[in-house]
What we know:
By secondary structure, the chain is of the alpha/beta class.
Amino acid sequence: MTEPALLDIQGLHTVYGKKIHALKGVSAQVRSGEIVCIIGNNGAGKTTLLKTVSGVLQPDKGAVRFAGEAITGQPTHRIARMGLAHVPEGRHVFPRLSVAENLEMGAYFRTERDLSKDYDHVFELFPVLGRRKAQLAGTLSGGEQQMLAMGRALMARPRLLMLDEPSMGLAPVVVDTIFDIIRRINKEGVTVLLVEQNAKRALQASSRGYVLETGEIVLEDKAETLCSDAKVRKAYLGLQ
Ligand SMILES: Nc1ncnc2c1ncn2[C@@H]1O[C@H](COP(=O)(O)OP(=O)(O)O)[C@@H](O)[C@H]1O
Ligand SMILES: [Mg+2]
């Protein structure tokens, strides 16, 4: 018997108001240990999908299962507590709290209070955060805020980390660092679902990928197969 997917999204429809049908029956799976990406242009529905999975938005139809349990309609805090972490688009760190306080907020749901190992782990992954523990998060650079948002998510010791456009607005060298760390986090046992407009980087980091266009999955395959797909090359990688 094959192991059921860690995250199983089935036929998800999400509508804003009455008219804006942002997701039109999206199905996707992430198995334990994978890095999976969803690529798509601005407005394709990537953020809507992650928000619907994490319980920020309610779907009109469809179902999401996480670790074998139906999570559709459950409140965000319960979903987070089950081990599903969501790093939102635009990072949303707490600007008036320090780096250390932001990290502490990430461990809010943890029952054990000794977080020293978790801080050590985050500071090892992101040494710059260790050097800036006391600095207010709002004064960090964009790349440092992305690192902090990821570090904060890791403080909850998630099984699945969902990242919404981690590379957005960052210089290429910083994007390299972020993607190196995504791979490292994955090697340490955290499953990753990544959504990105930056298709090249996302596909390079992933084992499988989906292409989302105006609320529908139009292609899914191994990342390397998608990289050689004529349509993906032309529309998403800017190649012939
Ligand atoms: N709060 C909202 N109210 C109404 N429409 C929205 C809202 N957020 C997103 N949309 C629309 O839903 C569609 C998908 O948006 P989004 O999920 O943000 O796409 P992506 O993250 O791929 O850029 C777009 O047409 C967008 O304009
Ligand atoms: Mg988005």
